[in-house]
Amino acid sequence: MQQQQLVDEIKVLMDLVARNTTMLADSVMEIDVDEYTDPSQFQREKTELFRNYPQFVGPSCVVPEAGDYFAFDDTGVPILIVRQPDKSLRAFVNICSHRGAPLNECDHGKAKKGRMFSCPYHGWTYDLEGKLVGVPFGKEGFDTIDRDALGLKTLDLQEKHGMIFVMPNPELTFNIDDVLGGIQERLSGFGFEESFYLGAKQVFTDFSWKLNMDTFHEYYHFEFLHPNSIATMAYSNVATYRQYGRNHSMGSPTLQINELKDVPESEWVPMNYSSYVNYIFPNTVIFVVADHFQTWRVYPIAPDRSVVYHSMFLPQEPATPEQRQEYEAYFQMINDVAVAEDYSLVDKVNRGLKAGIPRNVIIGRNEPGVQNMHRQLKGVLG
Ligand code: FES
Ligand SMILES: [Fe+2]
What we know:
Layout: H1 3-18, E1 29-32, H2 34-37, H3 39-50, E2 55-59, E3 68-72, E4 79-83, E5 89-93, E6 108-110, E7 116-118, E8 125-127, E9 132-134, H4 138-141, E10 154-155, E11 157-160, E12 163-166, H5 176-180, H6 184-187, E13 196-205, H7 209-214, H8 222-225, E14 242-244, E15 247-253, E16 274-280, E17 284-289, E18 292-302, E19 305-314, H9 321-353, E20 360-363, H10 368-381
Antiparallel strand pairs: 1-20, 2-12, 3-4, 3-6, 4-5, 5-10, 7-8, 8-9, 11-12, 13-19, 14-15, 15-16, 16-17, 17-18, 18-19
The structure holds FE2/S2 (inorganic) cluster and fe (ii) ion (FE2).
């Protein structure tokens, strides 16, 4: 967001604080508890949301240089994303054409010598464009294969406004503007191209990926679930809400926001007084706070098991080991709050959902983000 947008958002937040309210959905929503637990719905979600729908990978700075790669296999299709010498990006199915090993671990890193991938199983080698360029013992062992036809399978990848999306299904393509739905207006100016990627924490949880996402979409629970952590920094149940296609963006005020009443508007530093949860359908939250941002990507494993990747992006690489340690400690603290407070509570919610008691889950007008995710899920799954 640009300064003026941030200033305008602060004014709306101050007004909400003054009126002790939050932006509201039109009506209360109810969804059947089966939506979280039904195994057939789970299978449709895996296919329609995680195989046939474009996936947010990360901001452009996860792969800044030629030869940098990012690999993940949580959608069900192993995916390898590679920055090319001309700075464009390509995505491949990360399955070796020989006997199917992935070319590297799921992580980010650099291609061998910055220009090739060598399969860890029998050493077949591919260049950055995915062409098969080396087959050990090839003349004798593989004398009849057509090497040109055995490059890595390509996936549709698009990068725009500092964000990378990929389509896991090799048969499908997508339009990135449709996927973004305009949310880039809330995300520009935060350094998605040039930030420093500190790393990601992987957390496995024994509940639905949707229960996991639900916790990010409302500020209603702060004073009850986080009285000694988040609620000491931000208002409970006060937030802006804006819709962008299937996505949404919510702003939240810090407890100090009223200090700005005594400061001329031209001197406001809005990011000291607000933070933003940006939801990219179906499974990503980009949390912009103070001088940096974090992403949370959640993937389904089973109806009641999911995995979360919490990634941290800093304005620049820490200059000293001490500075790095400080950022690492902060990163760990945020992750610990989610695990200790949100996830341990959601674990118990999950037991209630699995109890087999027919009922509806009720989502209030003050939880428009939660409503949006479930509305969009219905829109895609029918
Ligand atoms: S599986 Fe990759 S070289 Fe054999
Ligand atoms: Fe929370």
